[in-house]
Amino acid sequence: MSMITAEFSPLASSGTLSLSQRSPVPSKTSNSSTSRRAKRRAAKRGEGESAEVEPEDAPAEQVEAEAAPAYTIDDLAAATSIPSRTIRFYQSSGVLPKPEKIGRIAYYGQQHIERLEMIGKMQDRGLRMRAIKDLVTQVERGDVVLHEWLGLEEQLSSAWVDDGPKLLTRAQLRELIGERRPGFIAELVRAGTLEQHGDDAYLAPSPGLLQVAARLDDAGVSVDVATGAAGILQKHLAKAAKELAGYFADHAGDGFGHGDSVVSISDAFRELRSTGPESVRLIFAREMEQVLRKMVETGETSRIEKKIDKKKRRRKRGAAAGDQ
């Protein structure tokens, strides 16, 4: 299966380029008579404000015989709310077909409107022109069905867990993690688990991990140690996730998904949303179990006990020195 790389596009961030937020496009029926009159007038004039010039004039009969609605570039810009310069850019990039030339005037049809809608959907998903051109080519060849690809892309791009950043008041924070010991909130802020916004607001980048930190603190695991452990997990799991994504992509249609259809690949990724995290939990639990058992068998637990005793003696000496 050919994989399309989604790249961020500066054009996608412009409010003038996304068709998903534009006014409805006129239908063929409502514009046919107006477009034919515009073509006849333009053919007689042989010029226009935004006309694209062709060296040879076409016969007038060809203009009259044209039944499909046609738009000059200004008409198309008005119908789609896309600036003329952007339409020309799409043409030069190879993602929009060239217009039909009648006389000295360039005309666009319904297929151009549909293609602009397609481009808008791809830009809404952050694709650059190079990636859009690649996808358009595959759609035209019949290698990719657009709505199936959009479904797969949506499946790959949507969140796997409902744990987005959340702005909390002090009361909401207390409700989330309960009453805490003095200094705990300050430790969370220093560790980056919380970000203070003003006097009575905190941003939690991950409310779920914030709750984990609170539970670990109850068990005697400091914020610093918990943050360090989270960093270790993130480092190794990020590498594993990248390798797994590539592995599944390499086996798409060949062991990953039923058959080689885009829909089957999308279904396989959907199933990973539940089985993936559960697999990580089971594998991590088994690995930790084996490592801790080995620590007991090799006598490393005695080293931990000696370290604790050493800290106790140091604390007692410090207390005695303070009394003196």
Descriptors:
single chain; 3-stranded antiparallel sheet; Multidrug-efflux Transporter Regulator, Chain: A, Domain 2; two-stranded antiparallel ribbon; 324 residues; mainly alpha; Mercuric resistance operon regulatory protein
Kindly report the spatial arrangement of strands forming the biggest sheet: 3-5-4
- Compressed to H and E, one letter per element, the order equals HHHHEEHHHEHHEEHHHH
State the CATH class of the largest domain.
Mainly Alpha
Choose one word for the global shape.
Answer: elongated
CATH architecture heading of the largest domain: Orthogonal Bundle
Beta-strand proportion: under 5%
Provide the number of structural domains. 3
Question: Can you count the beta strands?
Answer: 5
What's the end-to-end separation, in Å? Answer: 77 Å
Mean model confidence by pLDDT: 78
What percent of the residues sit in helical stretches (DSSP H or I)? 55-70%
Q: Based on helices, strands and strand pairing, what is the structural class?
A: mainly alpha
